[in-house]
Amino acid sequence: MNFARHALWLFGLLAIFAGPLLAAEYTGKVVGVSDGDTLTLLVLDGASFKQIKVRLGEIDTPESRQPYGQRAKQALSDLAYNQQARVVVQDVDRYGRTVGRVFVGATDVNAEMIRQGAAWVYRQYLKDRSLLALEAEAKAAKRGLWGLPETERCPPWDWRKGSCSKPSAAPASPAVSAPKAAASGGFSCSGKRYCREMSSCEEAQFYLTQCGVGSLDGNKDGVPCETLCRGR
């Protein structure tokens, strides 16, 4: 009986001290951004530092090869990269990533990604229903990905399953004759990255929306290559 009581006491003591090991929050510096909903946090662990891969909870952003994928990554970078952040842990996913709500100062980064139109509400894992109102607001204002043609707005969970139809090349405006590249079979994502490589505004728009070359839209106003497209 004495041994049994001692074992129970020891088990209880271990349970008390084991609790804090399951961290409810992490605080550290964002040292990497993998895509629109995944970042790397550098945190102090005892006398050394460790990196934690964090998946932003309750949101889902376009995959890197989807329209708006690279711009979603840039949006997250603008909000969090090289900043001190606090992560409120919600779960650990099957890839071993910490899933949580990310805060930079007073900014709720998860919610801000939705508000900017850089992410969908991930309905399968939704807990905070206020995100739905932010998504509806962004959609009504045609912010971010909601400004894309409807055929290019494919929820990433459907994209990953291969159930989205592949969008065709961006059509030319009815008021403007189609450029030679489009007439000869359409533009293609052939590795161009700079405005100086674009032959027309239509090609720049194609590379921005279909190839995810966010660097063409430096001021994030949805218009690529200002010198090509503003003077039209």
Description:
This protein has 232 residues and is of the alpha+beta class. The protein has two domains: 22-160, OB fold (Dihydrolipoamide Acetyltransferase, E2P) (Beta Barrel), CATH 2.40.50.90; 180-229, no CATH class. Helix content is 30%, strand content 22%. It is built from eight helices and eight strands; from the N terminus they run H-E-E-E-E-H-E-E-E-H-E-H-H-H-H-H. It has helices at 2-18, 69-80, 109-115, 130-140, 156-160, 180-183, 201-209, 226-229; strands at residues 25-35, 38-45, 48-56, 59-60, 84-92, 98-104, 107-108, 120-121. The strands form two sheets. It has a five-stranded mixed beta barrel. A two-stranded antiparallel sheet has the order 4-8. A hairpin with a 2-residue loop joins strand 1 and strand 2 (38-45). The longest helix has 17 residues, at 2-18. It is globular. The model is unreliable at 13-22 and 167-185 (pLDDT under 50).
CATH class of the largest domain: Mainly Beta
Count of separate DSSP helical elements = 8
Mean pLDDT: 82
Percentage of residues in DSSP E strands: 15-25%
Sequence of strands across the biggest β-sheet: 1-2-3-6-5
Q: Based on the structure given, which CATH architecture of the largest domain is correct?
A: Beta Barrel
Q: H/E series, N to C?
A: HEEEEHEEEHEHHHHH
Shape: globular
Structural class: alpha+beta
Number of strands: 8
Number of domains: 2
Largest sheet: 5 strands, mixed, barrel
For the CA atoms, what is the radius of gyration? 23 Å
The unreliable regions are 13-22, 167-185
* Helical amount: 25-40%
CATH third-level topology of the largest domain:
OB fold (Dihydrolipoamide Acetyltransferase, E2P)
Task: Measure the end-to-end span.
Answer: 89 Å
